[in-house]
Amino acid sequence: MMTTMTIDARATALTRARYQRLSPFYDFMEEMMEFRYDPWRRKLWSLVAASKVLEVGVGTGKNMPHYPNGIQMTGIDLTPGMLDVARRRTEKLRATVDLRLGDAQSLEFPDSSFDAAVATFVFCSVPDPILGLRELARVVKPNGKIFLLEHVRSANEVIGKLMDALNPLVVRMMGANINRRTVENVEKAGLKIESVEDLGLGGVFKLIVARVR
Hints:
single chain; alpha/beta
């Protein structure tokens, strides 16, 4: 029996405020890291074979150049400022994306609304990641896939403990937790893991493919 989980309104509001503050210069802050991330984004989207796809945490729209042709895309984000940048990106790319303000922990879509869902570097910031992952499982059709690109706590205990120690500072500055155990969280959310690929930095970056049961 699944335990009922409630949203922490204070933590969610704090997360929104952090990313709202960062939104005007967020792309500039991550410009150097995108040289590493962009090929991983391309790799993830090459795996997405579905007609109706939800991107949770669309942010400023960094994944948009990699959206496959011929799919119906919906993107949500917690932060109005991020969506403002994303909308400008759709105009520049002439992309058709249904962009909406929304919370991964409480998606405003009926059950089984999408064939697949994608999130890249998102579940490090969702206040309750298991609740958010359960919401993805709810809105994706049975046997549909969920694709995640995430950074996680290192399996090396020395590095992992260092990440734990630094995490409060990083969260205050950037909004993202650097010590999330996202693979384990995917399993706790009731999803079936199909594959986990280590992408770099000693397994800290992972490409996770899961299926809705």
